[in-house]
Amino acid sequence: MKPLSIFALAAVLFSCGLPAAAQTEDADPSATATPRSGDLMTGQRLIELVSRIDSDLQASANGARFKVDDYELMLVFDATANRMRLMSPIIQAEDLQPELMTRMLQANFDSALDARYAVASDIVWSIYIHPLAEITETQFASALAQVITAAATFGGSFSSGALVYGSGDSNELNEKLLRELEKRLQTEV
User: Fold this and answer.
1) Where are the domains of the chain?
2) Between vectors from CA 146 to CA 4 and to CA 140, what angle results, nearest 5°?
3) What is the pLDDT of residue 33?
């Protein structure tokens, strides 16, 4: 499998992934969602959280590109639609053999859990999608851990690490990563 460069391949998604109306935070997220008590999450707050992990992030009006350890990630949000997406590239889709495709889809059913495997723009991605306004900092840390773990285990256990039916190392590895990410999110820039 060939490694990917997110910055070359993700430019396509970043530039054309959302409609023009989605590239602003001016929309009222409560117009499309029933808010829970407490503060609503915004795209800007997510970018601030990401900057606690990677001060070299590349932010835009509707997201950011950043790294966690050796994993390249993209955050894209749309306040109007009240959605956020967190994703990491895995391999070129042309390198996806039929057996891997089948295993990837099986994992989406039982071991990928909140994170998912997907194909878009000729890339296999580890991806997490959630309502923007309702995601909490703890859920965002979990999303980061799951997307990274799903990317790391592609071709092996195909697990997001959040929960694995049966034995394996994924739960312990994900717990360690989740605790580290939560700690980093709590640190002020």
Assistant:
1) 6-186
2) 110
3) 41
Average pLDDT, the chain: 79
Q: Which residue has the higher pLDDT, 17 or 65?
A: 65
Estimate the crossing angle of helix 137-152 against helix 170-186, to 10 degrees: 140
- Domain 6-186 is of which CATH architecture? 2-Layer Sandwich (3.30)
CB 4, CB 94: distance < 8 Å:
no
Q: What angle do CA 153, 103, 90 make, to 5 degrees?
A: 45
Measured CA to CA, the distance from residue 43 to residue 82 in angstroms comes to 10
Is residue 167's pLDDT more than 50? Answer: no
Q: Is 169 helix (H, G, I), strand (E, B) or coil?
A: coil
Residue 31 class from Cβ within 10 Å (0-12 exposed, 13-18 middle, 19+ buried)?
exposed
Query: Which residue, 98, 157, 89, 93, is CA-closest to 126?
Result: 89
Who's near 148: CB < 8 A, 6+ residues apart? Answer: 68, 69, 71, 73, 88, 126, 177
Q: Which residue has the higher pLDDT, 93 or 177?
A: 93
pLDDT at 181: 79
